[in-house]
Design brief:
Layout lengths: L1 E7 L3 E10 L2 E11 L4 H12 L6 E6 L10 E2 L2 H9 L8 H14 L4 E6 L9 H4 L5 H5 L10 H14 L8 E7 L3 E7 L2 E5 L20 H9 L5 H10 L2 H6 L5 H9 L3 H25 L4 E5 H6 L1 H8 L11 H5 L6 E4 L5 E3 L4 H14 L5
Parallel strand pairs: 1-4, 4-6, 7-10, 10-12
Antiparallel strand pairs: 1-2, 2-3, 5-6, 7-8, 8-9, 11-12
Helix pairs in contact: 1-3, 10-11, 11-13
Length: 371
């Protein structure tokens, strides 16, 4: 079954084409269309690149499924309507995801279209993990709660690690770290996400490329009330001008910051130190949440490619049973690999969200239970 996977942003479209079957999958093509005037133009450009390939199904990455969708589903009129309604929770993402779906449906009306939600894996969070310390009606009436994101990646990592060992994710307690321009940590207790660092929005949690991560709500209210900063400007700042970029004043790219740090740039050093410290704190918290862990996994652009950051995060965790082996950590590879044989083994597992979306799409169509 040829399955097209789409990941739509505000001005770009990433696509992957797979041959996917219950017992095998093969990547056939991939690409990206950038700086487009409309998603319809992006979809047309994509099909120009793919040529006359027959596509039987399309898997769409949908960022927010709210508290309505806990697994991937075939898109029909009702599902489309609900995704649209959930745009109020993800105004920077869901509308673009829907625009791509509608444009793709115009080109492929006979194909089956499937929604794969970034929030769905975290549907298993217990109330104590997703509730905020706000009046209860804010949860029940206004839906203010922790939703979590990067669920497609965290789910893939837990599945892939278990597959490598001939087991299932239900056999392990895992801490998975997706570290890229966006970053999150997840506690996966015997197959279920029980806590994750991102919250009501993808801003909460770790320091990221341009997102702030955890900030005292009182500080935001102070900037609005006493400094006269408009909420819309603050939202832009928290999403696009904070994090590594904001602290360093240099870049949101960790490679740039490591070079600047070596040249003596103190702000770059502070950004790197704060980044590692924040991840380390969440790892410690999730060890407490699960009463230990069977593995710590790094993934994402930073997690997979930066030995210095992996070492910086794990430094000082030896008393909790976590340490990297310097030689193994420095060794370059694109394969899953163990980089620490401490009591809690440390692994690098390259993530593949697109493959998981393709697998989910195939399973929805064939009515095979999700892994």
């Amino acid at each position: 079954m040829k399955i097209l996977v789409l990941n739509a942003g505000s001005s770009s479209l990433k696509f992957n084409l797979f041959e996917t079957n219950p017992d095998s999958e093969q990547a056939l093509a991939k690409g990206q269309v950038e700086r487009v005037a409309s998603m319809a133009d992006a979809i047309k450009s994509m099909f120009d690149q793919l040529g006359s390939t027959t596509v039987e199904a399309v898997g769409h990455r949908i960022v927010h499924g709210g508290d309505r969708f806990h697994q991937s589903v075939i898109i029909d009129a009702e599902v489309e309507k609900q995704i649209d309604e959930l745009s109020i929770l993800a105004p920077l993402h869901n509308p673009h995801n829907l625009e791509a779906y509608r444009a793709a449906r115009e080109h492929l009306p006979a194909a089956t279209h499937v929604a794969v939600f970034d929030t769905a894996f975290h549907f298993t969070l217990p109330p104590r993990a997703y509730v905020y310390g706000l009046p209860y009606e804010y949860l029940t009436e206004k839906k203010i709660r922790r939703y979590g994101f990067h669920g497609i990646s965290h789910r893939y990592l837990s599945w892939r690690f278990a597959q490598l060992h001939g087991k299932t994710r239900a056999d392990y307690r895992m801490i998975t770290c997706h570290l890229g321009n966006g970053c999150s940590v997840c506690a996966i207790d015997h197959g279920k996400s029980i806590d994750t660092s991102m919250g009501f929005t993808p801003i909460e949690g770790l320091i990221m490329g341009t997102r702030s991560g955890d900030v005292d709500a009182g500080a935001i209210l102070h900037l609005i009330t006493h400094e006269g900063i408009a909420p819309s400007l603050l939202l832009h700042t928290l999403n696009s001008a904070s994090g590594l970029k904001g602290i360093s004043g240099v870049s949101n790219d960790m490679r740039d910051l490591l070079r600047e740090m070596d040249r003596g740039n103190e702000c770059a050093k502070l950004a790197v130190d704060a980044f590692c410290y924040r991840v380390r704190k969440y790892i410690g918290a999730y060890l407490a949440a699960m009463n230990g862990a069977d593995v710590l996994i790094f993934a994402g652009g930073i997690g997979e490619n930066s030995p210095a950051i992996r070492a910086g995060i794990c430094a000082g965790l030896d008393h909790l049973g976590i340490a990297v082996d310097n030689e193994a950590n420095e060794r370059e590879s694109r394969d899953p690999r163990q980089i620490g044989s401490s009591p809690v083994p440390v692994w690098v597992v390259p993530t593949d969200e697109e493959l998981l979306i393709a697998r989910d799409t195939m399973r929805c169509i064939l009515r095979i239970p999700h892994e």
